[in-house]
Amino acid sequence: MLSVRQLQAGYGAAQVLFDVSLDIGAGEVVTLLGRNGMGKTTTIRSIMGLLRPRGGEIRFDGTAVTGLAPYKVAKSGIGIVPEGRQIFPTLTVEENLIATAADRTGSRRWTLNAIYSLFPRLKERRSNLGTQLSGGEQQMLAIGRALMTNPKLLILDEATEGLAPLIRAEIWTCLKRLKAEHQSILVIDKNIKALANFADRHVIIEKGRSVWSGTSAELLADHSITDRYLHV
User: Fold this and answer.
1) Average pLDDT value for residue range 89-102
2) What number is the average pLDDT over the span 31-35?
3) Domain that holds residue 198
4) CATH at residue 11
5) Which DSSP string corresponds to 126-155?
6) Among the listed ranges 126-130, 147-151, 176-180, 228-232, which one has the minimum average pLDDT value?
């Protein structure tokens, strides 16, 4: 579904990505791992068209999307839950969800009722403004907003960063349910054990280069991998 090959990107004179490659198949959950500052968010920004790559290729559903405008990438069927959530603060919960509603797949699987079933708390808070939500509620809303585009691929950048343990557990439960429903997902997060419980494969990047990829069993079996590339 998504194929990234030898991706290169940067900001001004500073090159951040030198050689990043990854693949996501239909219905797969893949993680992008690495220490802070290694290029994870830059990779996501490049995929979404928010940063124009300097080299390499990005293909989605067999079509090249390298360097396309963000709205064209979104229309192709990629939904994003960005780092920092970035919900619309002056819109209500329901208005946030409706604002992004689209049918990318022809099935319109995700509707308001479906989102409220996934996150009952959002239904309770549907008339509240974005500024009146807790961090956990904002993350639920950001996920719901992305799902309302009915994406073929869902990308989450820092899925549970800064959230309380109970809310983190709720987010993981949500992602496991999406996986069970064959939603393709690319997720960035630091909680390796939680990710290994449901992700199919993992890609690690170090200083803007892909340095390792493998299954959850392979990642957990070799502590030298996490010690070398993930631990501070």
Assistant:
1) 93
2) 96
3) 1-75+191-232
4) 3.40.50.300
5) TTSBGGGS-HHHHHHHHHHHHHTT--SEEE
6) 228-232
